[in-house]
Write a structure and sequence with these properties.
Blueprint (H helix, E strand, L loop, with lengths): L9 H5 L5 E4 L2 H8 L11 H4 L1 H13 L4 E3 L7 H6 L6 H19 L2 E7 L9 H20 L4 E7 L2 H14 L5 E5 L13 H10 L4 E5 L4 H14 L4 E4 L36 H14 L3 E4 L5 H10 L27 H12 L2
Helix pairs in contact: 4-6, 7-8, 8-9, 9-10, 10-11, 11-12
The structure holds zinc ion.
Zinc ion binds next to loops.
């Protein structure tokens, strides 16, 4: 594997035009595999089947992720209260952190803690903000106790909540760098009315090491916003779209409709809008051209997509050993290796005469 910077931290890796590749998308992938419930989306798999979480971390590193993200997304107090398992909060967080640390330390990758939108933040209600800050604080403190290299705070619809998360990380995070990403909806501004470029600049000025966007939009509708963010920010910027074919008609994955039934495709019918691997290649090249330094994929991702991103960003992860090579295919391959009987005749047969 190609880990020439394996002992350095997030900031060192991002210096001098460096980049960081980041696998996300654990929630949707565990739901798809039958170990997580769509709806509340709580990462119960951490306690129910920890070995599978460890395995997914390893698979993502094999595919080229430079970061192992502790699976505590929606593992916060409000979500656990919702499913009546608040008593498991500390155990779930500590176990998720221990699993991620184990894989990160074994592979020379970065070990990241994770906090996210609280779902109860209200910009007009101070009391809700106090409650949200306390939720962030306990998760940040567990992350620091377990020795994280960075904390990723993500999927905030409002810059106000993102700034609050950053403030908590800066107060209780013992100096670990923060990556803060906003979650774009259909408008080109946050839910509290700030254009994304400006919102990211505010986060950068407030001390986030990396700022940007993740989730909700697919690559094609996230890229235009990244161009604005690149212009507005001086430091490293992050892009982690959902892996669905959003468009000018349906800017977010929540607005996509099933092409056969016309019904809302989110969440369980989204596979009919899955990106192709070529879409992801185009996405990663666009990010490189814009100057996205922290690149990844969010909901709908799995390791074969991430490998493409890693390769376009110059990595040769373990999974590259098995990257497609159609020259060896008996029908579609190198014509000098295979007879015309296969490369012409059988293709015509497969296509239908
Ligand atoms: Zn997502």
């Amino acid at each position: 594997m190609n880990h020439q910077n394996s002992t350095s931290g997030l900031l060192e890796r991002l210096q001098n035009g460096g980049s960081v590749v980041v696998a996300e998308g654990y929630v949707f992938e565990f739901e798809r595999r039958g170990y997580l419930k769509a709806g509340a989306y709580v990462p119960e798999v951490v306690l129910d089947h920890p070995e599978l979480v460890k395995q997914m971390h390893e698979e993502f590193v094999h595919a080229g992720s430079d970061v192992v993200l502790a699976f505590t997304y929606y593992g916060h107090r409000e979500k656990l209260r919702l499913i009546g398992k608040e008593d498991q909060l500390a155990a779930m967080n500590k176990k998720a952190l221990a699993l991620a640390r184990e894989v990160a330390r074994a592979t020379g990758t970065l070990f990241a803690g994770n906090i996210c939108n609280s779902t109860i933040y209200n910009r007009d209600d101070k009391e809700s903000q106090t409650k949200v800050a306390a939720m962030f604080k306990e998760q940040v403190e567990w992350s620091v106790e377990e020795g994280v290299d960075l904390i990723i705070a993500e999927t905030f619809q409002e810059v106000g909540e993102a700034l609050l998360a950053l403030e908590v990380i800066r107060t209780y995070g013992k100096g670990v760098p923060a990556v803060v990403t906003l979650c774009p909806a259909a408008k080109s501004m946050t839910y509290d009315g700030v254009p994304f470029g400006e919102a990211c600049r505010r986060l950068e000025e407030a001390g986030a090491a990396v700022v940007g966007l993740n989730c909700n939009r697919g690559p094609d509708t996230m890229i235009p916003l990244m161009r604005e963010i690149r212009k507005a920010c001086k430091g490293p910027i992050a892009c982690l779209p959902a892996v669905y074919r959003t468009s000018d008609e349906s800017l977010t994955m929540q607005s996509l409709r099933d092409p056969c039934t016309g019904k809302c495709a989110f969440p369980t019918d989204l596979p009919s809008h899955a990106c192709s691997r070529s879409d992801i290649e185009r996405y990663a090249r666009a990010c490189r051209e814009i100057g996205v330094n922290y690149i990844g994929l969010c909901c709908g991702s799995c390791s074969h997509y991430l490998r493409i991103v890693a390769e376009i960003y110059g990595r040769t992860p373990g999974a590259s050993k098995y990257s497609p090579d159609m020259s060896e295919h008996y029908m579609f391959g190198d014509k000098s290796k295979f007879s015309e009987y296969s490369t012409k005749g059988l293709i015509e047969y497969a296509n239908g005469f």
